[in-house]
Amino acid sequence: MSRILIAEDNAVNRELLHELLETRGHMVLEACDGQEALDVLERTQPDLLLLDIGMPVLDGYAVIRKIRENPRLAALPVVAVTAYAMPGDRERIVNSKFDGYLSKPINSQLLTEELDRLLNKRADRDESRRQASGNQPGG
Ligand code: MN
Asked: Is residue 19 part of a domain?
């Protein structure tokens, strides 16, 4: 089980993501715009953030910038979620220090793959740290 924050201004999309994640056994936190996402991140640190790009108050690009500037949040895995299909958007997302990218409508298989990749990557890192200090290879 992981704690996942959804930052998405569209209620229908938010609910859909919430259900997909809950079905997979995750604990879900929600924010309705970019500023609210940063407010939630001040109070709690989730394991991963699904960040909509097009949001009022602060958009996803502004939020990712603030996250990467904050030492406490800099390593937080963040997946961009966007409906944009404009040329250059994908490149801009890649250049904005996101860890992953999902386009809307969300494909649940791709969502699962992204979560596995990013959450397991973290688990692997924790595991190698444990092995480095304990040093038993095990079966
Ligand atoms: Mn949006």
From this structure: yes
Q: Structurally, how many domains does the chain consist of? A: 1
Residue 137: inside a domain, yes or no? Answer: no
Q: How confident is the model at residue 122 (pLDDT cuts 50, 70, 90)?
A: low
Query: Distance, CA 84 to ligand 1 centroid (Å)?
Result: 10
Distance of CA 89 to the CA centre of its chain: 18
Asked if residue 136 belongs to a domain, the reply is no
Domain coverage including residue 56: 3-130
Beta carbons within 8 Å of 132's beta carbon, 6+ residues apart: none
Q: What is the pTM of this model?
A: 0.86
Distance 108 CA to ligand 1 centre (A): 18
Distance 52 CA to ligand 1 centre (A): 6
Q: How far is the CA of 55 from the centre of ligand 1 (A)?
A: 5
- Average predicted confidence (pLDDT) for the chain: 89
